[in-house]
């Protein structure tokens, strides 16, 4: 385990939350198809507005053509390390409710929640994930024939078993060895007293 990336928390938090972080170094161990299904099932148990479940995941194992196509649409800062992930995913968010065709104001919120649930389940089986907003939207939509009027790409996700930071080129190796930090609770929360 990369202990430098384990947070030094003021309050005790659940171990599976503390252990989640976004690595760039992965071992060459493949993720079993059943394990992917386990992660997807976990995601499916997320809460969503009207239980719409507006998420849809495209995923590909390293070595497949689809995996190659996913790496090709990533931005340059993500390509050098994401190409070594065991699995790449595209998290899609459905813009409208199935039940009535109306706009779903919560679609991105709910896909974010599903992504996080998937990544927390991954921690439980020793896998870490790295979400990426750094991809070329137009190229990604085209490469995977995604209908932009119905779906928005929320992010890409690289998954794998965490590897040796020193296997990465710079500046990535150094980043992997830098402690993580967060805002103080008072910067993002306030108790209302009236
Ligand atoms: C929607 C989203 C997009 C992100 N895009 C990228 C990205 O393109 N490249 C990258 O290296 N990290 C990306 N990250 C990872 C964040 O930088 C990372 O989550 C943040 O620094 C906190 O670190 P932690 O996940 O290790 O706690 C993204 C995270 C999210 C949630």
- The N- and C-terminal alpha carbons lie at a distance of 45 Å
Q: What is the helix/strand order?
A: HHEHHEHEHEHH
Q: Superfamily at the CATH H level of the domain at 31-164?
A: NADH Oxidase
CATH C-level class of the domain at 31-164: Alpha Beta
Q: Name the CATH architecture of the domain at 31-164.
A: 3-Layer(aba) Sandwich
DSSP helix count? Answer: 8
Give me the secondary-structure category: alpha+beta
**Average pLDDT:** 97
Share of residues in helices:
25-40%
Gyration radius, rounded:
18 Å
Q: How many strands in all? A: 4
Major sheet attributes: 4 strands, antiparallel
Q: What coarse outline follows from CA principal-axis ratios?
A: globular
* Heteromolecules bound: flavin mononucleotide
Assign the CATH topology of the domain at 31-164: NADH Oxidase
Q: What's the arrangement of strands in the largest beta sheet?
A: 1-2-4-3
Please state roughly what percent of the residues sit in beta strands, choosing from under 5%, 5-15%, 15-25%, 25-35%, 35-45% or over 45%. Answer: 15-25%
The parts where pLDDT drops under 50 for at least 5 residues are: none
Describe this protein's structure.
The chain is of the alpha+beta class and 194 residues long. It has a domain at 31-164: NADH Oxidase (3-Layer(aba) Sandwich). Helices cover 32% and strands 15% of the residues. The protein has helices spanning 15-18, 33-44, 65-72, 79-82, 107-124, 137-143, 172-176, 185-188, and strands at 55-61, 87-94, 128-132, 151-160. The protein has a 4-stranded antiparallel β-sheet. Helix 2 (33-44) crosses helix 5. The model has no long low-confidence stretch (mean pLDDT 97). The site of flavin mononucleotide has 10 residues, from strand 3.
């Amino acid at each position: 385990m990369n202990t430098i990336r384990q947070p030094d928390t003021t309050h005790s938090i659940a171990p599976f939350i503390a252990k989640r972080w976004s690595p760039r170094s992965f071992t060459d161990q493949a993720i079993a198809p059943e394990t992917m299904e386990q992660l997807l099932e976990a995601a499916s148990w997320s809460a969503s507005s009207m239980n719409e479940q507006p998420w849809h995941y495209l995923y590909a194992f390293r070595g497949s053509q689809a995996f190659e196509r996913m790496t090709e649409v990533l931005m340059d800062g993500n390509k050098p390390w994401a190409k070594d992930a065991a699995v790449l995913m595209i998290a899609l968010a459905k813009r409208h409710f199935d039940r009535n065709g109306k706009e779903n104001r919560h679609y991105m919120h709910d896909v974010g929640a599903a992504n996080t649930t998937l990544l927390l389940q991954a921690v439980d089986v020793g896998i870490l994930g790295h979400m990426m907003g750094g991809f070329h939207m137009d190229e990604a939509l085209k490469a995977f024939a995604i209908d932009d009027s119905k779906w928005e790409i929320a992010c890409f996700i690289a998954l794998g078993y965490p590897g040796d930071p020193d296997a990465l080129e710079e500046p990535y190796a150094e980043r992997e060895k830098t402690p993580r930090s967060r805002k103080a609770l008072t910067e993002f929360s306030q108790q209302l007293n009236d």
